[in-house]
Design brief:
By secondary structure, this protein is an alpha+beta fold. About 50% of the residues lie in helices and about 10% in strands. The protein contains 25 helices and 13 strands. α7 runs parallel beside α9, α14 crosses α17 and α20 packs antiparallel against α21. The longest helix is centred in the C-terminal third of the chain and has 16 residues. The chain is globular, with a radius of gyration of 29 Å.
C-alpha cells in the first residue's frame, strides 16, 4: 500500500512551487505486488536543487548522503520514523573500477521517461504521481509484473552495470518470476562481466538472494546462465559429485535442499539467518576435493571434508567481504568444521554431552544443531528429525542446570590460583584445562575448596604438562 503523502507539508510546499512529485522504482513495484514497502523513493521535477533544499530544510531533516547521485535523505517533521530518498530526474552511466562509480547528470526538467529508462528492469521503471495517483509506465512494467516476468529496460543493460546480472537472479528467486527469454540470453552472453563488479556490491545481492523463500531457485538460475562458476566456483564443483547411499544425487542437489531448509523450515530456530545460510551453502564444499573411491570395494569416502569445507568458506567470505553485511565469518567456519557428529552418542551420556557443549560453545551449539537439522532435511530421510530435536532439548536442559562449560565458570579465578604460590603464565592455562576436564565429568567438583585441593594434590602432574 502506497502511503498517502499529500498531507505532508513538504509535499504541499513542493506543489505550490510548481513541482511534479513522483513515487518511483521499487516502491511502485512493491505496491503492485502487494508487498510491504521497504523504501520510499521520490523524484521531483521542475524544481532546481538550489530551490529544493531550502524547501526541505523548512519541513524536515535532510542530508545529501548520495551527492554523486544527487540523492537526498529526508525525514519530515511530522513523522520522524519515515525516511525518504528524494532526487531530481537524472541519467547515469557506471564508470570506474568495479563499477562502483557513476557519471550522474541531474536535470529538473528532464523527461521522466528518460529517468525511468536508466533503470534496470521494466518492473522497476515505473512511477506514480503522488498528487493524482496516475501511473507512469513507459516500458510496460505493470504488464511484466502481471505476467511475473523480469525484463531489462534496454539492450546492453547488463553491460552498462553488470551487477544487474545478480539483481535479475535475486529478483527472480525472491518474487518467483521468470526471466524473459531475450533477457536471459543477454544474461548468458554477459555473465563473465560479473568479474568486473566489486565484492562489496556482489555480497549485497547475495544477501538479498538469501531472502528468497527458496534460495536454490537463484542458484539454479546462476547454474543455467553460467554465473555460478564465476561467483561460486566451489559450489559449481559440487555438480556431478555423487554421494554414497544417495542414488543419483550429487553434492550440489543435496546442498540446495539444505540451503532451502535453512531458509524456511519451522523446525530450525534461526531459519533465514544469513550467517547460517552461508554455513549451509558451504558445509559440504570440500567434498569434491576429498572424494575417494576404493577401486576394490567401490566404497566412497569424504575424509576430513568438514575441515576442507571450512577453509573454502573462510576464503570465499573473505574475498567477498561478507563481514560488511554482518556475516560472522568465524562462526560460519566453526559450524562447518563441527557439523559432523553422531546424535545418539550424546543423548544418553551427560558427560559426553557436556564435553560436546564445551567444544562447540554454549552460544553456537544451537546454531550447530540448526545446521545439523538442515543437513538432515537435505538427505535421504528428511522427516526423521526426532534424534536431533531430542538432542536439542537435552542440550537446553543441560545448559539450564548451569554446570561449568568454560574456565570463566570455574569457582576459582587467577587470584585464587596465585594464593597457592603460582605466578601468572602458561601454568594458569594448564591448571584451567586440568580443572575443566574434571568438572565436565562431575560438575559437583566445581567448588572453591575442591578445586584448590585438586590443584594442590596434582602439583607434580601439572608441572609435567609444562615440560
Amino acid at each position: 500500500m502506497i502511503p498517502n503523502l499529500k498531507h505532508y507539508r513538504f509535499i504541499q510546499d513542493l506543489q505550490q512551487q510548481g513541482g511534479e512529485i513522483y513515487l518511483v522504482g521499487g516502491s511502485v513495484r512493491d505496491h503492485l505486488l502487494e508487498k510491504p514497502l521497504k523504501d520510499l523513493d521520490i523524484v521531483v521535477r521542475k524544481i532546481p536543487i538550489k530551490e529544493l533544499l531550502p524547501l526541505l530544510k523548512k519541513t524536515g531533516i535532510f542530508s545529501q548522503v548520495g551527492k554523486s547521485f544527487g540523492v537526498i535523505k529526508f525525514t519530515p517533521h511530522e513523522n520522524r520514523e519515515l525516511e525518504i530518498d528524494i532526487a531530481l530526474p537524472r541519467t547515469e552511466t557506471s564508470t570506474g573500477s568495479g563499477h562502483k562509480d557513476f557519471d550522474v547528470q541531474s536535470d529538473p526538467n528532464l523527461d521522466l521517461a528518460l529517468d525511468l529508462k536508466r533503470r534496470d528492469f521494466t518492473m522497476n521503471a515505473m512511477a506514480v504521481n503522488i498528487l493524482t495517483g496516475k501511473l507512469v509506465d513507459p516500458f510496460d512494467g505493470q504488464r511484466d509484473i502481471r505476467h511475473k516476468t523480469i525484463r531489462t529496460v534496454f539492450v546492453n543493460s547488463f553491460v552498462e552495470d553488470p551487477l544487474r546480472l545478480l539483481r535479475a537472479v535475486q529478483f527472480a528467486a525472491r518474487f518467483d518470476f521468470e526471466i524473459a527469454p531475450e533477457t536471459f540470453g543477454e544474461l548468458q552472453t554477459n555473465a563473465s562481466l560479473i568479474k568486473t563488479v566489486s565484492a562489496e556490491r556482489v555480497i549485497i545481492e547475495i544477501k538479498k538472494l538469501f531472502e528468497a523463500p527458496f534460495p536454490s531457485c537463484g542458484f539454479n538460475i546462476m547454474r543455467r546462465s553460467g554465473l555460478l562458476p564465476l561467483v561460486f566456483p566451489d559450489v559449481h564443483q559440487m555438480i556431478g559429485v555423487l554421494q554414497p547411499k544417495k542414488e543419483n544425487e550429487d553434492v550440489y542437489d543435496h546442498t540446495m535442499r539444505v540451503l532451502d531448509a535453512m531458509r524456511s523450515s519451522p523446525d530450525i530456530e534461526k531459519a533465514g539467518n544469513p550467517t547460517l545460510l552461508f554455513a549451509a551453502l558451504f558445509h559440504d564444499a570440500g567434498k569434491p576435493k576429498t572424494r575417494r573411491e576404493n577401486p576394490q570395494t567401490g566404497h566412497v569416502s569424504f575424509y576430513n571434508h568438514n575441515v576442507v569445507s571450512a577453509g573454502i568458506a573462510g576464503r570465499w567470505l573473505k574475498q567477498f567481504k561478507a563481514s560488511t553485511i554482518g556475516i560472522d565469518t568465524h562462526l560460519v567456519c566453526h559450524l562447518i568444521k563441527n557439523h559432523m557428529f553422531e546424535t545418539k552418542h550424546f543423548l544418553n551420556n551427560e558427560k559426553s554431552l557436556r564435553r560436546f557443549i564445551n567444544k562447540v560453545g554454549v552460544e553456537p551449539i544451537f546454531d550447530l544443531l540448526d545446521l545439523r537439522l538442515a543437513d538432515k532435511m537435505g538427505g535421504r530421510f528428511p522427516k526423521k528429525l526426532f534424534g536431533i530435536l531430542s538432542l536439542r532439548d537435552k542440550v537446553r536442559e543441560e545448559i539450564n542446570k548451569a554446570p561449568p562449560f568454560t574456565p570463566k565458570d570455574l569457582a576459582i579465578n587467577g587470584h585464587d590460583i596465585m594464593t597457592l604460590g603460582y605466578q601468572p603464565g602458561p601454568i594458569f592455562g594448564e591448571i584451567q584445562r586440568f580443572l575443566m576436564d574434571k568438572v565436565l565429568d562431575d560438575p559437583e567438583l566445581n567448588t572453591k575448596e575442591i578445586l584448590l585441593r585438586l590443584i594442590t594434590d596434582n602439583k607434580d602432574q601439572l608441572l609435567q604438562l609444562l615440560q
